[in-house]
Design a protein that fits this description.
The complex is a heterodimer. Chain A is mainly beta. Classes of the chains: A mainly beta, B mainly beta.
């Protein structure tokens, strides 16, 4: 079964850091670009970052550029998002998603930034 | 950045009726337009990609059309499980962007 499972979310104070992980299974992870998409409470979907299959190409939304870092470990079938200098407006459910269009999604992990 | 505008914001229909959802792009996205369905507490699910292609496992009552700047998602006969929020998304120009969503609710 093709599956993505996120972890690492939680409650963090403004200015803090968090590292999200996404474990992939059931497909050849190293063949696909991967993405992070977030959804603030009661709001729509926002693309956050993308990484190509070999990590050669990396893109960020302007809202997170310079604060977030996407990476992947193809040997471990895992995707990561290092989030630094977190702000209240980063509060959201964070989804990892395969390829574009996003044909496989994880269940999401919740990040809450609050003092 | 390409802005996608979905209409209506809310659509109230009954099971068995036909639903027509619209997505308009601020500039041409060719056919690089996808549709997603999201139910409360769940991740989005890909329904349609490249404007008119159904994703794997998507029922035939879902269809997509359009190109350039104007796109439509049609649900031919609504089933109870179809009531959800629908988003369009473009991948023609970086960055990928989403519409604000259309909530399809039971009348």
């Amino acid at each position: 079964e093709v599956q993505l499972v996120e972890s690492g979310g939680g409650l963090v104070k403004p200015g803090g850091s968090l590292r999200l992980s996404c474990a992939a299974s059931g497909f050849t992870f190293s063949s696909y670009s991967m993405n992070w998409v977030r959804q603030a409470p009661g709001k729509g979907l926002e693309w956050v970052s993308s990484i190509s299959s070999s990590s050669s190409y990396i893109y960020y939304a302007d809202s997170v550029k310079g604060r977030f870092t996407i990476s992947r470990d193809n040997a471990k079938n895992s995707l990561y998002l290092q989030m630094n200098s977190l702000r209240a407006e980063d509060t959201a459910v964070y989804y990892c998603a395969r390829d574009s269009p996003y044909d496989v999604w994880g269940q999401g992990t919740t990040v809450t930034v609050s003092s | 950045e390409i802005v996608l505008t979905q209409s209506p914001a809310t659509l109230s229909l009954s099971p068995g009726e036909r639903a027509t959802l619209s997505c308009r792009a601020s500039q041409s996205v060719s056919s690089y337009l996808a549709w997603y369905q999201q139910k409360p507490g769940q991740a989005p699910r890909l329904l349609i990609y490249d404007a008119s292609n159904r994703a794997t496992g998507i029922p035939a009552r879902f269809s997509g059309s359009g190109s350039g700047t104007d796109f439509t998602l049609t649900i031919s006969s609504l089933e109870p499980e179809d009531f959800a929020v629908y988003y369009c998304q473009q991948r023609s120009n970086w960055p990928d962007t989403f519409g604000q969503g259309t909530k399809l609710e039971i009348k």
